[in-house]
Design a protein that fits this description.
Distance between the termini of chain B: 37 Å
Largest sheet of chain B: 6 strands, mixed
Radius of gyration of chain A: 20 Å
Largest sheet of chain A: 12 strands, mixed
CATH superfamily of chain B: P-loop containing nucleotide triphosphate hydrolases
Number of helices of chain A: 5
CATH topology of chain B: Rossmann fold
Shape of chain B: globular
Number of helices of chain B: 8
Order of helices and strands of chain B: EEEHEEHEHHHEHEEEHH
Strand content of chain B: 25-35%
Structural class of chain A: alpha/beta
Oligomer: heterodimer
Structural class of chain B: alpha/beta
Radius of gyration of chain B: 17 Å
Strand content of chain A: 35-45%
Distance between the termini of chain A: 38 Å
Number of domains of chain A: 1
Number of domains of chain B: 1
CATH architecture of chain B: 3-Layer(aba) Sandwich
Chain lengths: ~350, ~240
């Protein structure tokens, strides 16, 4: 079925710089991931009620991959009731076990009024697995609900990801979407937040680190559709060896979005001469009386910072590690506390130390 | 006993010759002040000794106890016993002073059994707020905090020879006294030698120079004792800027 569809091309702005032209869907057949869910007691739904929640947060299909996911999703649905606080972090772990598979995991988080939930979703595979994961996570945060979601991409070197995160925040809700991208061959994430109720707020935060020939590709949207909404996006990454990263982000404020505050920052360190990164911030503002800023930088480690540390007697490779960790520090500070933070740190160290 | 021997050092920056042959010898326990007007090459001298990128040595030599300093990468110069106190210390986001000192000591194979205790003691000695030890180095520090931080590092790392590039700039009187006194103490307690680069002599109330050298247009045009600093304070640099032409 999938082979009949025409893939998008890099001619389209949203696919510009991507590796979509390399994708051959005929190499993949629909398959399943091995998935475990921990801490879901009391909030995880199954069967028809779970499937019925699909579409809670994503009302339109942003592209054909989201559509394919919607057509044949492997659903995990979490629903938390009004005024409930789910104290346990829900941890979902997906493993891609074999090559030649395209999988469509779908996570729905439906948080009722004044509820609170934290969810971590990990994607893993071995380096020799040539497969494609097309994950969609959709979040619906009702009035005053508080949702924290952390995606960790620890896919192997030959696994592709084309994913979506879509969140809708109602009045006075708070949604925090975190992404840690370390793995994958070409790993794309389109992360969109719609603030539709007055006073809704969202934070989007990402840490990415590509090496070898990896490519990390992020497309973000902060859509302010109600007054006094607030969004803050911070994406920081590094590219090493001949890897690549792309960030394009849009802050959109509709005419209803008066007194909105929206911030967007993307910074990428290029750690090798052969590495490449692109950063394209955009603003689209249809009303006055808003506070908005965006900042983007791509470049190598600051020479003065390096010299400062080396002049204290710190060897170059340690100085580089300190500066890179220092660079990631504000992102790591924002990440929700979880048992995975130490592992993330170790992987970043391994990537810094390794040469390919 | 250590000796930093600078001979006929010539340095250019961006193709322009800034230092035209500097010769200076600094022994343990000695304080050498290098004074001069703006643009004389004072900061270039400190940057070149430490190997800052962009400062090209076109002639001469720098030796520390006979070792060729110019052949070493920057970090090895520090490990060998040189230390640069910067005029404008660089902000390093997300990197704590304790991490920097810990790595600097590891590189010297000199792990202090109780680094934090040492840091706290040294911080108290110069009225440096220990809260700042666990913040990112120099980020959002005041001018005084930055120089106290530089002085603290010097006190913990105990170099053989320190190069102080305008320690006094941007400092209020209290911070200046604390930092200058700590450097003076190091010359007495651990026999540290110091190359003190400065525009003004106010630093010398606490840090007593044994020798004063006047740098103008990339050359040392006069050397003498502490009295030379008094003369400069009184008459200014005009005569020396003229002499260097």
């Amino acid at each position: 079925m999938t082979t009949a569809l025409e893939l998008p091309s890099t001619e389209e702005e949203i696919w510009r710089y991507s590796r979509i032209n390399e994708l051959d869907m005929s190499k993949f057949a629909s398959g399943k991931l091995t998935t475990t869910v921990e801490g879901g007691e009391g909030v995880q739904l199954t069967g028809a009620v779970a499937t019925a929640l699909v579409g809670s947060g994503m009302h339109v299909q942003p592209d054909m991959f989201a559509q394919m996911n919607t057509d044949t999703p492997d659903v995990i649905a979490l629903q938390i009731g009004k005024n409930k606080v789910h104290t346990q972090t829900v941890v979902i772990t997906h493993s891609v076990d074999k090559s030649g598979v395209v999988a469509y995991p779908r996570l729905v988080i439906d948080a009722a009024e004044n509820s609170e939930i934290v969810v971590v979703e990990r994607f893993t595979s071995a380096d020799n697995v040539h497969s494609l994961v097309v994950p969609v996570v959709e979040v619906h945060a009702a009035q005053s609900a508080r949702v924290t979601y952390l995606a960790i991409n620890e896919l192997g070197k030959n696994t592709w990801q084309i994913g979506h995160q879509v969140a809708v925040g109602e009045r006075d809700s708070n949604v925090r979407l975190f992404t840690v991208a370390l793995g994958g061959d070409y790993a794309r994430m389109r992360a969109e937040v719609r603030l539709v109720g007055q006073g809704a707020s969202a934070q989007q935060t990402a840490l990415y680190f590509a090496d070898g020939t990896q490519m990390h590709d992020f497309r973000t949207l902060q859509s302010h559709e109600a007054p006094r909404t607030h969004s803050d996006l911070l994406f920081k990454g590094a590219v090493k060896d001949t890897s690549k990263s792309v960030y394009t982000g849009l802050i959109k404020i509709t005419e209803n979005g008066t007194k909105t505050e929206a911030f967007q920052t993307n910074r990428t360190l290029t750690l090798s001469r052969g590495a490449w990164a692109e950063s394209v911030p955009n603003l689209e503002i249809e009303t006055n009386d808003v506070k908005c800023s965006h900042a983007s930088t791509v470049g190598p480690i600051d020479d003065d910072q390096r010299f400062y540390l080396e002049s204290r007697g710190v060897p170059p490779e340690i100085a580089e590690r300190l500066v890179v960790f220092g660079f990631f520090d504000e992102v790591i500070d924002r990440l929700p506390q979880s048992e995975f933070l130490a592992g993330i740190r170790d992987k970043v160290i391994a990537k810094l130390g390794g040469t390919k | 006993m250590s000796t930093l021997e600078i001979r006929d050092l010539q340095v250019s920056v961006g193709g322009t010759q800034i230092l035209n042959g500097i010769t200076l010898t600094i022994n343990s326990g000695e304080v050498h002040a290098v004074m001069g007007p703006n643009g004389a090459g004072k900061s270039t001298l400190s940057a070149a000794i430490m190997g800052k990128p962009g400062y090209e040595v076109t002639g001469g030599s720098v030796k520390l106890d006979g070792q060729d300093v110019l052949a070493m990468p920057t970090w090895q110069r520090a490990v060998a016993g040189l230390h640069l106190v910067m005029q404008y210390p660089t902000e390093v986001p997300g990197v704590k002073l304790s991490e920097v000192l810990s790595e600097a000591l590891v590189a010297r194979h000199a792990t202090l059994p109780n680094l934090n205790k040492t840091i706290n003691e040294e911080a108290a000695r110069i009225s440096f707020d220990t809260e700042l030890v666990n913040r990112a180095v120099n980020v959002d520090f005041s001018g005084g905090e930055k120089k106290r931080n530089e002085t603290l590092q010097l006190a913990v790392l105990k170099p053989k020879i320190a190069i102080l590039d305008e320690l006094d700039s941007g400092l209020d009187i209290d911070a200046l006294r604390d930092c200058a006194k700590r450097v003076e103490d190091a010359t007495n307690e651990t026999g540290m030698g110091a190359l003190v680069i400065t525009h003004y002599s106010r630093l010398f109330e606490e840090l007593k120079p044994d020798f004063v050298h006047i740098l103008a247009k990339g050359r040392i045009v006069k050397s003498g004792g502490p009295e030379l600093a008094d003369e400069l304070e009184r008459d200014g640099y005009a005569a020396y800027a003229e002499a260097a032409k």
